Amino acid sequence: MMTDHTVKSYDQEITHLTRKVLEMGGLVEDQLSRSIEALAERNVELAEQVVERDDMVDALEEEVDQFAIRMLATRQPVAVDLRLIAMSMKISNDLERMGDYAAKGIASRCHRLAKARGDMRPLQAIPRMAQLVQSMLKDALDAYVQRDAEKAVLVWRRDDEIDVMYDGLVRELLTYMMEDPRNISACIDMMFIAKNLERMGDHTTNICEQIRYIVQGERINRMPAPVAE
Amino acid sequence: MTDIPVGAPESIAPGWTWSDAAARRLKSRHAADLRLRIYGITAIAIALGLLLTLLTSIVVASWTAWSTTQIRLEVNLDPNEIDANNPAKGDYDDLVRAALYKLFPDVQSNADQRVLRDLLSQGAQFQIRDRVVADPALIGQTISVWVPVSDPIDQLNKGVIDRNLPPDRRRVDDQQIGYFDALVADGRIRSVFNTTLFTAADSRFPELAGLKGALIGSFYLVLICLLLSVPTGIAAAIYLEEFAPKNRWTDLIEVNINNLAAVPSIVFGLLGLAVFLGFFGLPRSAPLVGGMVLSLITLPTIIITTRAAIKAVPPSIKEAALGIGASHIQAITHHVLPLAMPGILTGTIIGLAHALGETAPLLLIGMNAFITAAPEGIMSPSTTLPTQIYIWFDSPERGFVARTSAAIIVLLGFLVLMNALAVFLRKRFERKW
Amino acid sequence: MVTQAHATAVPRPSVKGANDARRHDAEPANGKAAQGRGLDRSTTDQPSKQVPAGPAVAPGATPKISARDVNLWYGEKQALFNVSLDITEREVTALIGPSGCGKSTFLRCLNRMNDVIEICRVEGRILLDGEDLYDRRLDVVHLRARVGMVFQKPNPFPKSIYDNVAYGPRIHGLARSKSQLDEIVETSLRRAGLWKEVHDRLAQPGTGLSGGQQQRLCIARAIAVSPEVILMDEPCSALDPIATAHVEELIDELRAQFTIAIVTHNMQQAARVSQRTAFFHLGKLIEYGDTDQIFTNPNETMTQDYITGRFG
Fold it and tell me: Hey, which residues 45-104 in chain C have their CB within 8 Å of chain A?
């Protein structure tokens, strides 16, 4: 256990910052699962709720940033504290983008897709992809609070799966679009949804890189090469 | 923020609570304060009162010594009595007496003439002689001179001798009083400031006795003491403070120096007698020997005060000098000593003032000798102010009583002057800090 | 709620363990992060300045002063334990550490100011440009002109400002004439940033200046003898922030010409002012490295605990 700061309020502030980031992460997780649910059940009301709740995500990002800046000014942090505070700002930024994808990218398309006719089979792949993204995010947030760099690296690698799924889904959607031009509009929406999910995965890898930097202190935005493949 | 920690006693919460007990305690503290002040003021008042009493009594006792009685005579400098080629050899006694007898033409018998002669001081003739020697052109003229009267008449004029006492209880008899009153009626008696006290050396006769020899002797003494003890003392202090290793030997030396400062000064006198006079065979009563003995007495004081002054200089100055690349000696002489100067000066002057007033050791080396001429140099016999006081105190003549007190006042005056010099120098150097 | 699961904290891996991860660090992870941001990061990768944990030698730079296995005793009590440290030329090296850790003691070894303390005994080698400082034949007075010192509390001599600065050149015979001496005094005061403020009152006592000015006067005094190294023992601890800023600016300017070693309690100052930092604790040198690295990612846990305020 890392020793406490001599000034207790410093530790309390760091805990507060961490909690806020986690709160934001939890909210984004929730937004994602709800938006996928809305999509699957064609629940327009739920989708509208998700879109509105994006304001909360934005507000939390503002809160995290302000608090981090305040800590930079008052505590003049160094070493691990500095890395934590600076990276927390970046993580909140990534989470906010993910929230946007979940709300504006996915939930807002729900309305249109709910009314679409046509082949909805690709819709089944999407929840699976979303599931992957969700678990990645959850594990990343775990690694954040546990300050576990190895875990972050493992989560980072799982993004490969999402990319593979995305590629497959795009091919499938292309096939449908070529089969029946009436499907194009719906398929394009689905393609965008898939793209947003893939982007969410990318942002989660950013979060993992930042976590790794917090713990190990070297080379932001870089990951170690795979050990033995 | 303003949370009182759990478990803290209530009494540490801020805010005063006034209770009767607290008010009473405060009152008694004020009372104690006032009492302390009263004690202090009383103590100072008592000390000052005693001092004032002492000074007043001395001043009163010395009152009559500040003036001297003179008689005016017309002295005919008969060229037959004085050889123009050797004016010093003339019979001035004769001339002076002749001038006096002229004033009392009807005093013819030898016994009466002797009584008349006793009115004059023995030194009157020498004063005339000195004037003629200084200006031989006066030979052949009749000059009007004021010459001192003898001591009994001096005392009579000052009213010290009580005329109402029976004659066998007085210094002067009725005949002398008669002559004296006649001279007074004639306007030939005056009282002037006693410059002889400062211009003449010691003498058997009080009216001719002065402090010149003692002043010069004391001056030589202080000078020699200064020259011997100050450089040695300062150098020793610098060595002990800066260079000597801190071991048991230096501790021993320090203890011994502190003890030396407390040794009774008469022991130093014995030392001087045995070593300087006995072993080295230096002349007795010489200011040189006196100065050497006094320097032994003041040396410990100077060493101790110099060490304290050096210790008081902030070490940051010396460190700064060393950091710049000054050697140890340079750091001390360029920086530490100038800053320690006020303290060193004060200590030196106080030590010298103390030496000025030392009597016992000087008595042992013979500076209470009766010496009638001022010393020529540091090797010739001399007295000093304190020993002169001692000598006069022992003398029987009435005139010496007042003169002893006058000499005490002169000595005190010099001590005050030296201390004032110490204060002035200290203030002057302190401004430079 | 999901957040509750994250609220538990688990023992964090030690910083040392991170070193191992670092060792098989190789290619940049280009694709994902880059695409997420639309920027190719591969060209902006900087090599890390890794400092080995062994002897504290700065690779590539000439050490101006190098200390090896320095041990120091005050009587029976040992104050420095096998300290080995290099001070690189024309750089500022900061010595930090808690009270009583020996940083000031070590600093004072570098110009043999500890000689003044009788019970002090030093073992080990300290080389200035290759010469052993503790060699018997070395002239301490000359050494102290080559290695100057500025103290914690400004201590100008109680002389005029001119005499303060001129004293050093005078005793070392650096000026052959009065005009040369005047020149040295003016140059030193200009370099110390004090000339404009005092040029019209050089005859006034140095002790009449403000605290910050006095300290700059002490710095001018130190550089008047053209030293090669300047040692500063907490020079700003007695100064207000503005005076501190002036002195820090001065240090920045001076390091183009002088090698500077500064002991400071103020970690932010050490971070601002120095290029290399050494952390001392209880007489031992715990870590020494580039300032950037020490303050963003120190190797030793103790260093990190100290600089983040987790000590005690």
Answer: 45, 48
Q: What is the 3-state secondary structure (H, E, C) of chain A?
A: CCCCCCCHHHHHHHHHHHHHHHHHHHHHHHHHHHHHHHHHHCCHHHHHHHHHHHHHHHHHHHHHHHHHHHHHHHHCCCHHHHHHHHHHHHHHHHHHHHHHHHHHHHHHHHHHHHHCCCCCHHHHHHHHHHHHHHHHHHHHHHHHHHCCHHHHHHHHHCHHHHHHHHHHHHHHHHHHHHHCHHHHHHHHHHHHHHHHHHHHHHHHHHHHHHHHHHHHCCCCCCCCCCCCC
In this prediction, residue B137 has a pLDDT band, given cuts at 50, 70 and 90, of confident
End-to-end CA distance of chain C: 37
- Please name the residues in contact with B152: beta carbons below 8 A apart, sequence gap of 6 or more: B118, B161, B171, B172, B176, B398
> Which of C43, C294, C308 to mutate: most A Cβ within 10 Å?
C308
Contact B155, B177 (CB under 8 A): no
- What is the ipTM, given to two decimal places? 0.80
Q: Please say whether the beta carbons of A80 and C303 come within 8 A.
A: no
| Cα–Cα dist C12/A147, whole Å | 6
B243 to chain C, any CB pair closer than 8 A? The answer is no
pLDDT digit string (tens) for B357-409? 888 999 888 888 888 888 888 888 888 999 999 999 988 887 888 899 999 99
Report CA torsion sign: C123, C125, C128, C130.
positive
Q: Is the minimum CB–CB distance between C180 and chain A shorter than 8 Å? A: no
Which of A71, A219, A227 to substitute to test the interface with C, most C CBs within 10 Å? A219
Q: pTM of this prediction?
A: 0.76
Closest CA to A145 of A88, A218, A77, A79: A88
State how beta strands C259-263 and C229-233 pair: parallel
